[in-house]
Amino acid sequence: MLITYRILTILLWPWIFVFSLLIPSAKNFLKTRKEDKRRILSYPFAPKAQKVVWLHAASVGELDQCKALALVYKKKEPETFILQSVFSDSARDSSLEAFPADLKFRLPLDFPWSYNFILDKFSPQVLVCMAWDRWPNLLQAAKRRRIQTVLASAVITVPKGFLKKKFYKAAFSLFDKILTSHSSGEEKFKELLGEKKYIKTLGDSRFDSVIQKIETSQREFKRPKNYPFSQVFLLASTYEPCEKLLLPLLKEPSLKNTSFWIFPHKTDPARIVQLESEIKSFTSDYTLYSKTEFDSLSSRVILFDVLGILAHAYRAADFAYIGGALHNRVHNVLEPAYFGLPLLSGPRITHAPEAIELNHRGGLFIIRTKEEVLEILQLSSERKEAIRFSNRQFVETGRGAAERIYSEIKNPFL
Questions:
Q1: Residue 78: DSSP 8-state
Q2: Residues 69-80: pLDDT tens digits?
Q3: What predicted TM-score, i.e. pTM, was given to this entire model?
Q4: Other Cβ atoms closer than 10 A to 282
Q5: What contacts 283, CB < 8 A, 6 or more positions away?
């Protein structure tokens, strides 16, 4: 299977080159990686002069997992040189610039020859991927150089079909250690790879990133003074399917004392204009966050059109809807869980063990209809308090995962 994958990636290269000439986004994708390669090759670094650890993240969520582990390395081994790569363009350049690593870059496409210039220059001792990310050519290149390969905060969706299962088994077998985020993941990996594979549950380092982000922030977020609504329903990372389901609730008489704070997944001008138009079809009592002094707001609907506020705004809410899972996959549920909020989500949470666990504990509700939403928004104060305690406790159980992962990587290879 790995040989087949290797051949297919080689055959794919000419087509990718052609696409890059025809499609601007593909051209920019490759251009960014070419610029990173030049920057890496010109970076002043003495080979084998210091220990090197390479952390890799697929996207934004996995970058948070890497961040927690990188901070532990900076604390325990300040002399260790940390490489941080990321694949998805959803991880903004500003996020990478602020990341606590010595050198940050976009991961090259997974061709057999793609990583030699990195491995030749830095000779890392360890390669750590996060969650589910596995690039067979990268992992094989690392193993040929006897680099320890680790999958940390690991999760897996059980593969369906013979070929997919065979590929998963071949790819994940390339890791020397698989450190799962939850015990359920450990069971699934052992079922796929066998009992002899080194698999151990140590937790999800994203918990540490979320906790650290909230507890070290100097920002206090409170409701506006004399805010006339007794309950705040916060809608986080929303897409059109989310708004199609939830905005009609603005017409419900039983929710007249409930305000809606909306944080769309994207805040580009076209998206905001579109969302404003949709809100106006249900109510005129709305305000754009960037247009008015927040402390003086009294609008029932507040549309947040800026970034960097969501994690703090949960503090002022009573309920939180987490977007993505009506049509694709749920977004980050840990931040609102930290504040003990009852959570609402669409049904597509199978990729997120933390969302599944919160659902099992009764603190995250799967919703498909507005009637289900109405029922949840009218929970008793006793039930809300029980959920607040349970969700907050769940986040606390994940504290320290990054330290545990670091200690496991430090252990002699098994």
A1: T
A2: 999 999 999 999
A3: 0.83
A4: 16
A5: 250, 300, 301
